[in-house]
Amino acid sequence: MPAPDAVKLSPEALPTLAERARIPAYERGAVSASIVHIGVGGFFRAHQAVYLDDLLHTPGNEAWGYCGVGLLPHDERMRDALVGQSGLYTVVERSAAGDAARVIGSLLEYLYAPADPEAVLEKMAAPACRIVSLTITEGGYYVNEGTGAFNERHPDIVHDLAHPHQPRCSFGYLLEALDRRRQRGLAPFTVMSCDNLQHNGDVARRNLLAFAQRRDPALHDWLAENGAFPNSMVDRITPATTDEHRALVRERFGIEDAWPVVTEPFLQWVIEDTFPGGRPAWEQVGAQMTDDVLPYEKMKMRLLNASHQAMCYIGMLLGMQYAHETMEDEGIRTLVQRMMDEEVTPLLSPVPGVDVEVYKQTLIERFSNPTICDQLSRIGTEGSARIPKFVLPSVAEQLERGGPLRRMAFTVAAWFRYLTGEDDAGKAMPIIDPMAETLQDRAKRGGREPDLLLSLDELFGERLKAKPEFVDEVRRALRSFYDQGARATLEAYL
């Protein structure tokens, strides 16, 4: 069947597009943008915005819509794309069964903070704002990974303490908006982290309070007494949007969309039910409200996210581009499966309603999905935040138990080898990381010896680098990467 002529996505085009994709069947003009979301990337648009779009199809939920906020220079492109489409965009779910498209309408507004910081601050400080949610990446919480403490020396934090009314980072915007609410006699909005952090709400609370203490002890005390920071666990594999995805949406569905999202069918959201200012009825559309998120988030981060780290660096060293290619490689698939089974699963507590063996098999199937083409370069971004959060906690627990950790040490060594910026064939690999300059310098100077990288206390702390069981295994693996190559090293660690 030939593709229909492409129509530019807009509110006016929705009736035409109804035969090509599912469209919003609710009156967007009646919905209030009472949730401000900072960090409108592909994941948010494939996950939280989809849940709310589902909910808005049920009458009586018009009090809940999103206002998106972009803080970073590259968010200007997202602003231009979304504002030009009145916040509408296409989500395509891809699986072996085929492709399904829908247009999401829950994003009602978009503000680009560098162009008008005051508009963002007033949006958050207004009485209508009840929740501010975050997808600001693991590195956006200003955690010293070595100590777990708030990194008050980060340049963004230093700037926002000195210039509280012209903030640069998410925490600066949160705190200034909260202070305005305090001065106006308003309750704080709920701060809802949706990032891949264990205890993500607790981390947001601890670090925002540390920031507030530095700025104004009275603000700290008010927020500590009245603020809410629910924990949550989020899951949906969402690759970065490419021109191929835009072409797919245009040619397959006849929709001209400046920034669509391609994702997998699976999605999951577990939320701690702590919202004193009210919340959407997410449980009506499949989210799980609970008193304790920890077992779910620990399972997800230690199995899914750690496995992503295990597959991506070795995959890139071997010249692969996509996650499904690593699962087609018997060696990498075996490494990931055995790391999950032997080194991670024994550390997990029972998870209510989840069979962990079935969960692990589902992960392998999701990683193997060839239709979404999840980029290894995306998975490997910000390793300085992801390795300490997803891999090293299991390493630390196994060291305490005297348990196995060889494949996790291999993963760290593969990351170290990747940081040289060249794969085994000598092809350049871009290193996208806030610490890229430091990491690459130490990786190149250290070569086959890991000590310069392991001595980064903000990543490994004093505890891990003092453990010969871990350090020696990383050293053996890294030397093998240099002496024997990636394939032979992989085979030695199965």
Characteristic key phrases:
single chain, 3-stranded mixed β-sheet, 5-stranded parallel β-sheet, alpha/beta, N-(1-d-carboxylethyl)-l-norvaline Dehydrogenase, domain 2, Rossmann fold, 2 domains, 494 residues
Q: Could you please describe the fold and organization of this structure?
A:
The structure is a single chain. By secondary structure, this protein is of the alpha/beta class. The chain has two domains: 7-290, Rossmann fold (3-Layer(aba) Sandwich); 294-492, N-(1-d-carboxylethyl)-l-norvaline Dehydrogenase, domain 2, CATH 1.10.1040.10. Helices cover 48% and strands 11% of the residues. The chain contains 22 helices and 13 strands. The chain has a five-stranded parallel β-sheet, with helices on both faces. It has a three-stranded mixed β-sheet with strand order 5-4-11, sandwiched between helices. The chain is globular, with a radius of gyration of 23 Å. The relative contact order is 0.10. The model has no long low-confidence stretch (mean pLDDT 97).
Brief synopsis:
The protein is of the alpha/beta class and 494 residues long. It is built from 22 helices and 13 strands.
CATH topology of the largest domain: Rossmann fold
Largest sheet features? 5 strands, parallel
Whole-angstrom Rg: 23 Å
Strand content: 5-15%
Could you tell me how far the N terminus lies from the C terminus, measured between alpha carbons in angstroms?
Answer: 47 Å
Class based on secondary structure composition and strand pairing: alpha/beta
Give the rounded overall mean pLDDT. Answer: 97
Work out the helicity level.
Answer: 40-55%
Total domains, how many?
2
Count, helices = 22
What's the CATH C level of the largest domain?
A: Alpha Beta
Secondary structure: number of strands: 13
Regions with little confidence, pLDDT below 50 for 5+ residues: none
Q: Give the second-level CATH assignment, the architecture of the largest domain.
A: 3-Layer(aba) Sandwich
Based on CA inertia axes, which overall geometry fits? globular
The CATH superfamily of the largest domain bears the name NAD(P)-binding Rossmann-like Domain
**Strand order across the largest sheet:** 6-3-2-7-8
